[in-house]
Amino acid sequence: MSRQSSRYFAVRGKAFSYLVSKRALAVTFLLLFITIAVIILSTGIGSVYIPPGEVVRSVFGFGDDSSEMIVRSLRLPRILMAVLVGASLAVAGAILQGVVRNSLASPDTVGMTGGGTLGAVSFFFFFSDKITIHLLPVFAIAGAFIATFVVYALSWKGDGVTPLRLVLIGIGFAAAMSSISYMMLISGPVVLANQSLTFMTGSIYGVSWEKSVTPLLPWFIVLLPLIIVYSRHVNIQELGEEVARSVGSAVQRQRFLLLLLSVALGGAAVAFGGAIGFIGLMAPHMARKLVGPAFGALVPVSALIGALVLLLSDLAGRTLFAPLDIPAGVFTACIGAPFFVYLLYRSRNR
């Protein structure tokens, strides 16, 4: 018993408690260190190379004027946007996979990404010349919420929502919304089609502190701790509805609240980063390989892996084909599509 307890740290609060393994804690801090290192290196890489030491000094206001302008005004908002969007999509995917109890579940397969994209495309085509562009995130988040809850309502049968129905209806509904988005894209003006296509591909090009980072940051700061605290219910959900009910869990209410938190975080990420696919699918699987299925550790590790994936994808997009700036969503799709096929192959007999 003492040997078992020596492998865990107890984290307790008034409303929650966790047992976190020392291995998971070590992995989390290692990934945090790697993420910070990649942030510093990525901020320095570009048409003008800035050494890591100068990057750190410029962030804190002690670099030379030109380096501070490049780092703080041009590159750092984009880097932090990649961290926030990647981490948000990964956490949303982890919660969805736990609630739905399906390894193929992600923001892409339950209609969240498709709804956010359709909301943004609708804004471009119907309202961009009538109201301010600052309302684009509102349309994207609203689209993600509406799509997810339509899927949730259509999946309700008898006394609740079954995971299989949720995924199947979500995939079908996402395909329908994608078709509508593309129909609007090819039937509208070229300028609006270009804006929509960039959003649908998924890109964090041209972000700024005022229009992107600052509006997304409150969603991340508020929702991520709530999800970490509430994610202990996912561990019970993964045991199955009968087991969860037998231990006094309010399955449908907790499933709805977890979906609400997931959609809010994922919808905000789609609103500001566009339809960046597959991060919500890949990151939770990678995290499980490193720290196991317990959500107390899985959520923060998924967030760090998602941030790293999008950071590296964006770095590749803006450096490998310079002076062209390839959307980060192209690179996440290049990695995620084969990964999705692998998951399908692995689960073919289940």
Automatic annotation (TrEMBL):
CDD domains: TM_ABC_iron-siderophores_like. The keyword Ligase does not apply. It holds the Pfam family FecCD. Keywords: Membrane, Transmembrane, Transmembrane helix. InterPro entries: ABC_transptr_permease_BtuC. PANTHER family: FERRIC ENTEROBACTIN TRANSPORT SYSTEM PERMEASE PROTEIN, FERRIC ENTEROBACTIN TRANSPORT SYSTEM PERMEASE PROTEIN FEPG. This is FecCD family ABC transporter permease. It comes from Paenibacillus oleatilyticus.
